[in-house]
Amino acid sequence: MRYQVPDPIDPRDAFTVTPEVDSESTQPAAASQSALLLSARAGVLGVSEETKEWQKKGGSRFALPDLGALQRTRRLTVDVATQGLGVSTKDLESGPAPRLQDEMSKTVDELYEHPSVEGAAALFEAAMYSPHPLVRVSAAAGARETTRLRKRIREILETECESGDPLVARLAQTALANIDPKDSEVTKWVVPQPEFEKRDRESNTAAITHGTFASDAAWYQPGGDFYAALAANRPDLDVHDESFTWTGAYSDAARRADALLLKKWIDNQGLASPDFFAHSHGGTVAHHATKKGVAFNRLVLMGWPVHKRWFPDFSMVQDIFDVRVNFDLVILLDRGGQRFRTKEFSIREERHGWFDHSSTHEPAYWDQHDLWDKL
């Protein structure tokens, strides 16, 4: 079982720790540092309605500085960005980790006491030299917004796109896609729209799909761990013998095109108002499909980035079961909302654990929180 819950740490305490890749004890610090960095990035870009929602939800367990005070009016030079650290870029490259952590800790304290875009920029510059890839990627995503895209930032993101840690890889891929959805380092994770044959059958079986950049993942496909767990724990849903694969592309135009593919796939598979399990932007594809005439009995959304413009046609859905973690790091980077709310529809929510975007499709997460019987 890979599912673990990294407890949140107040960022002011988290940044007193130097997180190491192979140290389980420092993983909560790494995740908490990443969450602050991505929150600061959101503040730099301007606090949206979605940002306000999850900023409030941090509460006493994960208090944030005044993100509104971080909004940039212009980009800074790299020299200006490092001034708050009292060291040069060259010093950052050669400085030992403990000294660097001390500088970051001081910068974080200042960010809470006197929040500013300069303080956020200084933190991004220092954190790009953290020994932990989760922290480096989050810092690189922020530094690109306070300064400019440059070699150091691109090297971090391109390298970590290949990370064996799914969370690190997804953050790096999403950060690059935010810069350019057609970047060659991003499009190699995208597949052409699959072709499929019409099948002579009709059923109301459940079906599963993946999120962005994840068409080749095993978990959602027949034989995959989530597919097998769903079949074993809820045999009454009679999970379909095929799963829906879409391009995994990061753009709204692509997701709308894949919604038409989903409509065709459902028709060809002979599915009538299926239960549909969708991770991340797979949920966005499903929502767009409802506006094309696709009906779902139940939508099970796992880590969906909430944006009002991507809400479904609620008249085409009987039930929505929204499963997520607190302060989902990928959603923070995507600047999505962390709570799916609407007065139009009663949405059932299950919120457990922190930070890890992939947790919501892991069988151990569902086991631990008794979700199979709550469907």
Structure description:
By secondary structure, the chain is an alpha/beta fold. 43% of the residues lie in helices and 9% in strands. The chain has two domains: 11-187, no CATH class; 207-374, Rossmann fold (3-Layer(aba) Sandwich). It has helices spanning 11-14, 27-45, 49-58, 78-83, 89-94, 97-113, 117-127, 133-146, 151-160, 166-179, 184-187, 225-233, 252-269, 282-290, 329-334, 363-368, and strands spanning 207-209, 275-279, 296-302, 317-326, 348-354. The radius of gyration is 21 Å and the shape is elongated. The two termini are 22 Å apart.
Widest sheet: strand order? 1-2-3-4-5
Rg on CA atoms, Å: 21 Å
- Taken in chain order, the helices and strands follow as HHHHHHHHHHHEHHEHEEHEH
**Number of separate helices:** 16
| End-to-end separation | 22 Å
Tally of DSSP β-strands: 5
Number of domains: 2
Strand content: 5-15%
Q: Tell me, briefly, the overall form.
A: elongated
Helix content: 40-55%
Main pleated-sheet profile: 5 strands, parallel
Overall pLDDT metric: 92
Taking pLDDT < 50 over at least 5 consecutive residues as the criterion, the unreliable ranges are none
User: What structural category arises from helix and sheet content?
Assistant: alpha/beta
